[in-house]
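Quick sanity check, Syntaxin-binding protein 5-like:
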Amino acid sequence: MKKFNIRKVLDGLTAVSSSSSSSAALQPGNRENDVIQETLQSEHFQLCKTVRHGFPYQPSAMAFDPVQKILAIGTQNGALRLFGRAGVECYCQHESGSAVIQLQFLVNEGALVTALADDSLHLWNLRQKIPAILHSLKFSRERITFCHLPFQSKWLYIGTERGNIHIVNVESFSLSGYVIMWNKAIELSSKTHPGPVVHISDNPMDEGKLLIGFECGFVVLWDLKSKKADYRYSYDEAIHSVAWHHEGKLFVCSHSDGTLTTWNVRSPAKPAQIITPHGKQPKDGKKPEPCKPILKVEYKTARAGEPFMILSGGLSYDTVGRRACLTVMHGKSTAVLEMDYPIVDFLALCETPYPNDYQEPYAVVVLLEKDLVVIDLAQPGYPSFENPYPLTIHESPVTCCEYFADCPAELIPALYSVGSRQKRQGYSKKKWPISGGNWGQGAQSYPEIIITGHADGSVKFWDASALMLQVLYKLKTAKVFEKARNKEEKPSTDIVDEDPFAIQSLAWCPESRLLCVAGVSAHVIVYRFSKQEITTEEVQLLEVRMQCELNEVDSPDVGGDQASAVTTPGASSSPQSSVPQTHPSTSSNNSSDGLRDNVPCLRVRNTPLKQSPGYQVELVIQLVWVSGEPPQQITSLAVNSAYGLVAFGNGNGLAVVDYLQKTLLLNMGTAELYGSSDPHQRQPRSPRKARQPSGGEEIAGSVYARDNSFSRSRSSSVASIDKESREVISSLHFCDCLSRKCEVTAVASLWLGTSVGTMLAISLSVPSTPELRLQQSVGISFCGSVVRLKGGIMRMALMDSTGSLQPPAYECWYDLNAPEEEKERTRRRRPASPPSTQENQDSHYAVVCSEKQAKVVAMPSQNCVFEHNITENSFVLRADVVVMPAGICIACFCTVNPCLQCNYCAEAQTWNGSSRTFCFSNLGQALYLTSPTEIQRLTYSQETCDNLQEMLGELFTPVETPEAPNRGFFKGLFGGGAQSLDREDLFGELAAGKASRSLAQHIPGPGSMEGMKGAASGVVGELARARIALDERGQKLGELEERTAAMMASADSFSKHAHDVMLKYKDKKWYQL
């Protein structure tokens, strides 16, 4: 087994060239890395996407397979999302990225046709776990506007912008020579071009009759056999959609003026009925006032009741500001269902796939711009089904994200038990109707949780185990604060114009279930998990004043206000004598010069707060305005349940809060953390009026916590000036380690990294027992700088002497509101297993990663045993020290792609929020928001990639197609039933000839023959393989026949030439030759 070498592991993952990688920097005489055995190799890593969750971003089209029970949604960026039962999802992408304008299932065939805005058609094979394109057809002379594929037909009708209709064989994806030209369809009935084709459908009772709708309001019933129009129907308003009655005698058109016209097939002179569903009927019998266009109508019949007419749009123009509606007309009743977002498309789900039978609609799938709603048509009031898909990620924009793999097993059931009480009531009692597909067989055995923070202040916990995603629990942090009812009541102390409760970062301890969130309004909230409901009479509040003023270069001296903590009366009731000096908080404190001072950005509610089971507020920490300058937003956050501490930092400095005693332990500017050994050249601030100190010096433990914070204006000009000189606390990490060179026993410590690449250490003296912990203060002492790196520090971690990751100490979860005997039984602190060492001997290692470098430092000697330059021309956006099955490694996500090779970084950076939400987790998992509504999960583990096929669900399952409707004795005897049509005789090459080659180009797909072979399995697979074998045999026989014909032609030619030579020299003598 090879020796420990992080550089080799990093090179295996990133494939960085040797020029950008520096060799390991070993101090002379130190060989600590020889002790640690290397377990990770490049073959342990493989990068690939796994699954995509969330609502399809910018949807544009939808289709449903009524036999397979699968829903397909296309988007404006060429994405294709397929949904089956809960947990069965699939994501595909067209290479061109053009918008999907229409989808057509080959019902119960495991195939799907997509039509794109770039006038291309694609045939997808859904019989494999990762669908692939079998064929493509690119039109070059005409624009595609509408597609129609009859049930159990292999001929696809294509309507174009010029008004023509072409026919495609979906098996070979070749064009037929049969074309319906627009001028033949309308002949002399119209003097102008009818416009694009907006509808194509065949008569349910006669496949030989094709109904063609043109945009101008013209409809033609075309006879395919005679190649002429039987009837022509004209209306003076543009058509948006057409729907048939199942008997084929009536059809309904929706128009741009909000009207519905019902036509009798044999009466083309005028409509049998004209209605305006949402129009006001004048008393004098005049025509109703025009309404908005009815974009789509569906006409579905029921055997035992009145037919359903379902439509979108058509509202009156005087309903300005009204939300989009879906109208359901059933008999004499009309129900108008308001939607939260505009309607993109809708489909009625019916019991039968046959268009010539009673449809029996039971549900309506409504695709909205940002939601998917399924309505139950069988229950009174038309309730919606409870959606099992994770489509509410974007309910409020995601502002931060964290990913935790291999969590405690009891955590997901605990979150689900409290989250199940938050579910809405009033859903349909029936099962979710989109129920196709099967789950994957090989599931990951460890639990995974994703936490998302949102712009409205909410925090959502998701169960992400086994490549699925399900919401567990939702926490609303905004409940802690008072909300302004209108703009006049909005406080003038806000530092953001919108979303003042937005979550900026969060820290979570899965073992203790302790949660800490930081918001954009410079506030931090500490939550504990409890299964009991409580009412908090007064929310505990701690206000912190952070500022820093440097008066001269390289001067660490204090200038300005001292550190101060302001607590509410409820927060100052702690029994210790070491509580910092406090003064009451007011909402309108001003300094002597009239500037805002000691005022928080948000008002904490002063009324009793009822807290349901789940996460409950323990403490609210707010940074306050200082002499007219707003508080800096929080840039780093850490919490530790074993120590009972919360630490956070920003551009002004560092603050450490004891959330058990509700006291401020440390509030210090960044420059003061260095002490007298500050290595940085600090620029002086512009001259300002001297400020009067507002409080005395505070003592917490053995430290003088003097606030020397460095505040700045939020104007862009000052921000650009201060950017280079301001040192921000960029990373924090609690651990038990040897932070000083002279220490031999590990102690509780806080590591902090800065934006200029310095890692500092602070030792914490935590009382040993829970009783003493509540009575005595935590001592703090500074250990100075540990190591410096290029770029701001992103992540820090601790390894023991064997190279294993040493997690921070934690306190096992106990219910704070449970009875005392139960609380004492469950409460215990996990031993930190502090490494002890002899003098002058290192026992553990600090792993530090910055925007440019990674270093491993031996502790307590603080010797750098390894150094690696991650990138030279870019910088790291996110880094983490993660545990892999075979060891630990540093995973990095960079702006320019040295770490995650493939196309993932490019996609992740197309949307601004991707880099902000990218996060790694243990066991080779990672995720990012690929759009405002979708989470893309990926893996960099070879083991997961190898098992991915087994873990993914199957979309296609063998299902018997329902029997065709019985024609009945009399219909079979006297006719009147459905008339079949042999389309092969009409559209085949023998009858219709070949289409023009310049009209469209056929492009074989990557999954054509190979994809079919890989998809074949079971009985269906045997049939597919047999069919493939026959195709291959037929192809080979065809090639053999062609070669035989060529040989015969060659032989005939040779015989002819030989005969000619013989005749030429037949009668000549030898001397005449």
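Posting the structure with no commentary besides this: The mean pLDDT is 82.
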